[in-house]
Amino acid sequence: MSISQPFRLVGGGRIDRRRRVDFRFNGLRFEGYRGDTLASALLANGVRTVGRSIKYHRPRGFVGSGAEEPNGIFTVRHTGVEGSTIPHAPGTVVELVEGLEAHAVNGWPSLRFDFAGGLQWLGGMLSAGFYYKTFMWPRAAWHWYEWAIRRMAGNGRAPDGPDPDRYDKRNAFCDVLVVGGGPAGLAASLAAARAGARVILADDQPELGGSLLGARRQLGGKPAFAWVANCAAALADEPEVTVLSRTTAFGFYDHGFVAALERCTDHLPPPRRRGPRERVWRIRARRVVLAAGATERPLVFENNDRPGIMLAGAAAAYVNRYGVAPGRRAVVFTNNDSAWRAALDLVEAKIEVAAIVDVRPEPGGALAARAEAAGIPVLAGHAVVDTQGRNALRRVRAARLDGSGARNLDCDLLAVSGGWNPNLHLHAQSGGRPRFDETRGCFLPGPPVQAETGAGACRGTFRLDACVREGAQAGREAALAAGFRDVGVISAPSTDEEGTTDPDPAWAVHSRRPRPRRAFVDFQNDATAADLALAVREGFESIEHIKRYTLLGFGTDQGKTGNVNGMALAAGALGRSPAQVGTTTFRPPYTPVTFGAAAGLATGELHDPLRVTPMHEWHEAQGAVFEPVGQWLRPWYFPKPGEEMRAAVARECLAAREGVGLFDASTLGKIDLQGPDAAVFLDRIYTNDWSSLAIGRCRYGLMLGEDGMVMDDGVTARLGEHHYLMTTTTGGAAHVLGWLERWRQTEWPELRVRFTSVTDQWATIGVAGPRSRDLVASLCEEIDLGPESFRFMEFREGVFAGVPCRIFRISFTGELSFEINVPADYGRYAWDRIVERTEEFSITPYGTETMHVLRAEKGFIVVGQETDGSVTPVDLGMEWILSKKKDFIGRRSLARSDCRRPDRRRLVGLAAADPNEVLPEGAQLVDEPFTFLPVPMVGYVTSSYWSPNLGRSIALALVAGGRDRSRVFAALEDGRFVPVDVVSPVFLDPRGERQRG
Amino acid sequence: MLLIECPWCGPRDESEFSYGGEAHIVRPPEPDRLTDEEWADYLFMRKNPRGRHLEQWCHAHGCRQWFNAERDTVTSEIVRIYRVE
Question: Does the beta-carbon distance from B1 to A254 stay under 8 Å?
């Protein structure tokens, strides 16, 4: 026994004693071995208090040895690794590596002397639901209480910076997925593999064996581990078997979809880490065999939470798997036989067992003789009623169930077993409904809902040889059901099994004190038996409500040790059976999943595709400021060096109306429609008439939802007899394509028309302004651009700067304007040819902000800005676009009474009385300022800009009754009410002479 | 995540599809002949059954084709998939 690890046993365990590992806990240096967990290494060093409880700040030690651990939670870092922090890791699953630094997540200033430890004497203030009852007065002080409570109740600290680690996802398919690499899972995997099935075995431990890793058992007359090694070797030889170690299946979703988290590098020293830290496996399995094992549950008695009180199976696991003595002198307290085996394991490891305290009058079965032979005193029909020890366990008090014969037993380890709970999480997530089994005193899986079978302890089969048999049978049947051959009955080795794990249903030791001490049910949330009783007294009946009131099962451990006890205690208080009360809902994930793993590679630049136009690099080189529009990145404005946004936009706005404005419109959605019924289809989809549109002409169209509300708009050109090109808003392109497809496929399959997205195939260059015709003419000789030969709302095909082009004479600015479409690969080339003429034609590139100002000066709407899904064309003053000669999507809805209310909000222009006042977009409009509350809102500002061309502010708004009002007030955030005149939304060139020029 | 058998592409993850709600709602051929109530019924009212439901799906990130499915809303079992005729 080395000095540095005083509780390390001389031999035994699956640790590598030649590989010492240095680590730190709360700043102090310790030493462990390769193969240790953080928990086993701390216990080997005699560290028993590893945290303070969340509410009462009571000292706590390890309760379990695996994923069920409620108490021993740490923030874990590694020396010399920046930024990589695991904020909330159970020490029982953290594999020890060189340089590991662990900190207890609670306890201030130190674990031995926690400043808030006195809180436990404030009992009444912190009972179930305390946050609804106490700290309520004075009301204004809640923020202070909250600060103090959060500080004291803090769990792990979230890391400050971005996560430096990489995470991955992988899709996988298999015939049979086996969850759990214990005796049942190994047998199932082998049976399925031998039938020829493609098998994935997911196991959360570093090595296969499951419960056998922590137990001293025999199979077929040999140590069970020899059988495990044989199975592992046989699986390694199977070409269609994938064994995923350190992989926790955490969610069972629909149609055989199971998600599993693989921990790839945490067990390696940082310098040896390669590849992603964690990987989420998204497994689609034809059949699933759940061999997830069982979790031991504690017993509920007064002061059952002192460091040194742990599950009997965990105590045995520390001895058998890690070669660690969890104490020097133990008492075992149980209601079933499994803890007797743990007691024998302790004795075998030369740990004194002061007594086995068993609530059953005649306990132990066949194991009783072995206990007697080992010289273990037995207190039958007894219970542990209380414990002592300030920072760790020193003594327990045992008494008969009637309270008589009380005696003290000195010990530093109390190994407790209240029976075993099958791990039903995945079964329940898949849709199964667990049922309570009175004989076995636990919930068992119900009938499977998906293609799923349980095997072994997770379906309540606890005998080792039965687990192996059941696993083999489940594997055989799963492969058969997945269409593979029948391998027949597989013989399973027999075992040394003695005794039974069926517990005496002793859910809690009833206190005989007038004022009982706390008996904890959920250690991580400090939920006590008294809290559950209180919740029932206060009228809660549903276990889901009791859970939320007492916080039972709300921790990061999700109540793996405490839930079933809590449900049974609640049932007792309600005078019902656990079967009647049932379980709370099992939700994924089974164990916590990091956000990093959930995100995988989809972070930062890879979070969402970024779309840029062919001219993007030019914009960047010009110093453009960009704005995201959907997935697109568009130039917002092009500031000159030192130029503010307002000045830049003003310069761009003036240039577009005086010289030539150059605009990248490539992001507009473009859909190619072809087929003899294209015109009929357009007639139904758009509100206006399309059959009359001549080849070579364009028309503006408005699309409504069937509810009559404006959905999208854009210009569509007729390219040929049966060929149209539709443009959509930048953000609406995908939705519109889906919309067209849906109507065509599901409602009008007889229409011969097809759609193709060509947004990415064409670059669109807009040139606007009085000199734009001269500019285009200088680069496009073969098209006659004369005002009479190429008129407004027409299009031409030809060659532009040597490149094939489609030129549309349309205008979103109100100016003489051309949109030049060239194949995307020529976009930058054509753009550059225009830019070369900057001097000659005084060309100014402009961005989306200027586009918005220019169109607002003309009163053109932007779908999504002037509309929000509740605005009709009539509201926008666009009755002119509603055909009366045909039906179209949404037409009937416009006749609904609500769409005809005279007081509907209508589009208007706003001119603030102070022309320098630019109203904030979204500002509310009222009739009267400073009136009584509530002030009726009559509308709101949808668009608002400084108009350099008009030398004043302008705005568009939706106002009840429209221009029936002549003046409203805009309510500003600073408390002012600004008088505003209601005017026409067309501020500039109302007759449209400029764009037709 | 559902496994949906696209009639054209075969079984794919649900994430490739978009959902279209109740199937077999026919657009009235002459909307003007409907009362406001009848039109509102076509427009807004949808079944929300516990059990078998006929619904529309679109292989949005695949072949872009719409099709119908009969799905059990309790068990998520897809009983059958059939094309829009």
Answer: yes
Q: Which residues of B touch A446 (CB under 8 A)?
A: none
Chain A hits for B85, CB-CB cut-off 8 Å, are 749
Smallest CA–CA distance from B18 into chain A, residue: A738
- Say yes or no: ipTM exceeds 0.90: yes
Say yes or no: B50 contacts chain A, CB-CB below 8 A. no
User: Using CA atoms, how far apart are residues A562 and A64, in angstroms rounded to an integer?
Assistant: 12
Q: A877 burial class (0-12, 13-18, 19+ CB within 10 angstroms)?
A: middle
Q: Cα distance from A842 to chain B (closest Cα, Å)?
A: 45
CATH class of the domain whose range is B1-26+49-85: alpha beta
Q: Is B32 on the interface with A (CB under 8 A)?
A: yes
Q: Which residue of A has its CA nearest to B29?
A: A887
The string of pLDDT tens digits covering residues A586-620 is: 999 999 999 999 999 999 889 999 999 999 999 99
pLDDT, mean of residues B15-23:
95
Interface test with A, best of B16, B19, B36 (most A CBs within 10 A): B36
Give per-residue pLDDT as tens, B63-83: 999 999 999 999 899 999 999
- List of long-range contacts for A965-969, beta carbons under 8 Å, 24+ apart: A965/A927, A965/A938, A968/A910, A968/A925, A968/A926, A968/A927, A968/A938, A968/A939, A969/A925, A969/A926, A969/A927, A969/A928, A969/A929
Mean pLDDT, rounded, for B42-58:
96
- Cross-strand bridge partners of residue A202: A179, A244
**Residue A306 contacts residue A197 (beta carbons within 8 Å):** no
Own/partner pairs for A487-492, CB < 8 Å, 24+ apart? A487/A191, A487/A194, A487/A195, A490/A187, A490/A190, A490/A191, A492/A187, A492/A465, A492/A468
Interface test with A, best of B64, B72, B81, B85 (most A CBs within 10 A): B64
Q: What residues does each domain of chain B span? A: 1-26+49-85
Is A257 within 8 Å of B34 when comparing Cβ atoms?
A: no
Least CB–CB distance from B84: residue in A431, A707, A745: A745
Chain B residue numbers with beta carbons less than 8 Å from the beta carbon of A895 are 32, 36
Of B20, B34, B43, the CB nearest to A742: B20
Amino acid A391: pLDDT: 87
Asked if B76 and A254 come within 8 Å (Cβ–Cβ), the reply is yes
**Residue A82, Ramachandran bin (φ over 0: left; ψ between -120 and 50: alpha; else beta):** beta
Residue B20 confidence class, pLDDT cut points 50, 70, 90: very high
Please indicate whether, in this complex, the C-beta atoms of A254 and B32 are within 8 angstroms of each other.
no
The full set of domains in chain A, from first to last, is 1-160 (3.10.20.440), 167-294+422-481 (3.50.50.60), 298-418 (3.50.50.60), 616-666+762-854 (3.30.1360.120), 669-760 (3.30.70.1400), 900-996 (2.40.30.110)
CB of A15 closer than 8 Å to CB of A34:
yes
Is the pLDDT reported for residue A521 higher than 60?
yes
Longest dimension (CA), chain A: 114
- C-alpha atoms less than 13 angstroms from C-alpha of A355 in its C-beta half-sphere: 21
Nearest to A891 among B18, B31, B85 (CB): B31
Q: Can you give the pTM of this predicted structure?
A: 0.90
Annotate A423-432 with b (16+ C-beta within 10 A) or e (fewer). bbbbbbbbbb
